[in-house]
Amino acid sequence: MMVRGVRGATSICEDGQQHVLEETSELVKEMAERNGLDPEDIVSVLISTTTDISSAFPAKSVRSMPGWEYVPVMCTHEMDVPGALPLCIRVLLHANTEKSQKEIQHIYRNEAVRLRPDLASRNLKGEGAK
After folding, report:
1. Dihedral-angle region of residue 117 (phi above 0 means left; psi in -120 to 50 means alpha; beta otherwise)
2. Is 90 left (phi over 0), alpha (psi -120 to 50) or beta?
3. Can you tell me the mean pLDDT for 69-82?
4. Beta bridge pairs of residue 107
5. How is domain 2-125 classified at the CATH fold level?
6. Are 52 and 85 in contact (CB under 8 A)?
7. Residue 88 a catalytic site member
8. What pTM did the predictor assign?
9. 4, 23, 34, 78: which one is catalytic?
């Protein structure tokens, strides 16, 4: 068993507490499910948002998920680079797993599929799934 990073990202249609919390929890749930991870497998979660998101802490939604109460979660803002995808939430989940780097499924949802179309299309085809 070793620690692997699982990446994910999503976007919201507008900055609002409900959008931030719902989309973050859906993303993290999908990341865990697609990689066969339970909360006990999670070492930590780092969440960043673009600077146009300020209505809620996305970490709150993760801490509210059943079984995730003790998982260390931290939020930060992403670099404010001109032309970057707006209203974007990025997640880096560190987990103990037997999977190889190639088997990890990184999850990109909504407009965030533009960030890594290579990985988004790989997951649609089911590659790397066990």
Report:
1. alpha
2. beta
3. 95
4. 8
5. 60s Ribosomal Protein L30; Chain: A; (3.30.1330)
6. no
7. no
8. 0.89
9. 78
